[in-house]
Design brief:
317 residues; two-stranded antiparallel sheet; OTU_dom; ubl conjugation pathway; thiol protease; ubiquitinyl hydrolase 1; EC 3.4.19.12
Length: 317
């Protein structure tokens, strides 16, 4: 089951606040230990005889571990990229200055070149130009790296999964309502009309009326403790009245509200069917971990045939 915490933004340390790579790796080890402690709490929250709860806990643990791995990979890559950029900029600037300032005389002695001294403004312009040139080179290099980066790899895998099913990705705006917009799109394909406001309110109301089913999977992002009654009510209120991101908890509530199973497709994990005990063909959404820097994201799907029709219609128009 996906990360069920209210706050989805990871607290990341920028490269400027890390002195060296060893410090970053040390923090990663500490965060992994903290995650293991959190995982133990999750496992302890599920009764031994309740197979459904234990399955939900296992799903949540798998997602948490995958999310932390992706976060660490991105931070380490960004750290190396930024520090390489600083070093290259320094070398370009220093190398240019040294080549212009040193001239060899007829007796092989080093003499100052016969030229006017550069003004401070000119030096600043040259330094800025050198940095601009280096930045362009870094952008080109990063474009090549991105082709093999986690975002690109995830998208390639997801599109391959959809292709096997005769489906194509339907893009949903990343505005905090992506989960509800994706479900709405799936409902509209079945001629069922709804709105974000309606789905959010029904989700919050269902969670309130089934508090004991959801509370064990909601934790305070600062302490890691299970939400208090007051915090749980605040969470439900934000679910109903704000563009707060929704995850597996909200998906489970939605499947019960709609009395329809929901299938979640992901790049590196087998599809998860939420509300598998419910009858009917599942609504299908796609879960992305890396496609947006702000956090996780949900998209919808359409048939590949419908996508082709839309593309051909765009060409004709």
């Amino acid at each position: 089951m996906a990360d069920l915490k209210q706050a989805k933004c990871d607290k990341q340390i920028s490269p400027e606040t890390i002195e060296n790579e060893e410090d970053l790796i040390s923090r990663h080890r500490r965060e992994r230990k903290e995650l293991q402690a959190e995982i133990q709490k999750i496992k302890n929250s599920a009764p031994k005889g309740d197979k459904k709860k234990r399955k939900e806990c296992s799903e949540k643990v798998a997602i948490l571990e995958a999310e932390l791995d992706a976060k660490h990979e991105e931070e380490l890559s960004r750290f190396k990229s930024n520090h390489s950029e600083e070093l290259m900029t320094e070398n370009i600037v220093n190398g240019k200055e040294s080549s212009e300032d040193i001239v060899q005389g007829e007796d092989n002695s080093v003499v100052e070149p016969n030229r006017e001294k550069k003004s401070k403004a000119q030096k600043r312009r040259e330094k800025k130009q050198a940095k601009g040139k280096e930045r362009e080179e870094r952008i080109k290099e990063q474009d090549e790296v991105n082709k093999l980066g986690p975002r690109q790899q995830e998208m390639v895998k997801i599109k391959a999964i959809l292709k096997e099913r005769g489906l194509a990705l339907y893009e949903i705006a990343a505005d905090g309502n992506c989960l509800y917009n994706a479900i709405n799109h799936q409902l509209s394909s079945r001629n069922i009309q709804s709105t974000n406001e309606e789905l959010r309110k029904k989700t919050a109301d269902y969670m309130r009326s089934h508090r004991d089913d959801f509370l064990p999977f909601l934790t305070n992002p600062d302490t890691g403790d299970m939400l208090t009654e007051e915090e749980f009510e605040s969470y439900c209120h934000k679910t109903a009245h704000s563009p707060m991101w929704g995850g597996q908890v909200e998906l489970r509530a939605l499947s019960e509200v709609l009395q329809t199973p929901v299938e979640v497709l992901q790049a590196d994990i087998q599809p998860i069917v939420i509300g598998e005990n419910l009858a009917g063909k599942p609504l299908t959404v796609v879960y992305h971990r890396h496609v947006y820097r702000l956090g996780e994201h949900y998209n919808s799907v359409i048939t590949a045939a419908l996508q082709q029709e839309e593309e051909e219609g765009d060409i004709i128009s």
